[in-house]
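Sorry, any thoughts here?
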Amino acid sequence: MPIFVVQKHDARRLHYDFRLEVDGVLRSWAVPRGPSTNPSDKRLAVPVEDHSLEYADFEGVIGEGYGAGSVIVWDTGDYENAGRLPMAEALAEGHAVFELQGRKLRGRWALQRVADDRWLLIKAADEHADREHDLLADRPESALSGRTIEDLG
């Protein structure tokens, strides 16, 4: 099964990098406010460069230059395509639906393109949706090491 990873990245601005394994690479979106388990929240997701699969478990500090700052693996796990098209085709069409089986994020999600370089990351109203809790605030630690961004800085 393909993997997904959400890396919390304290660069010029704190954001979360949402990554899906598609055709041997990590397709990636920067999500400024991070994923939300509230289906009413539609989170902006801006495509960024693809990363190699080896980057999926990277935690540490990126030095001077592009992307400089601290990075933790906020969440990781497997995902399953829940749409009718293969994932690469669904993304090319601008709408992908998938089931996450992460340590923090679970259930059905969608990425919906709304403009050339703008997507929305949306949680489905399923048994894993939670309108009450802010998972980003409640669970700031790395899913791999238990460290926080502040521990790295």
The mean pLDDT is 94. The chain is about 10% helix and 50% strand.
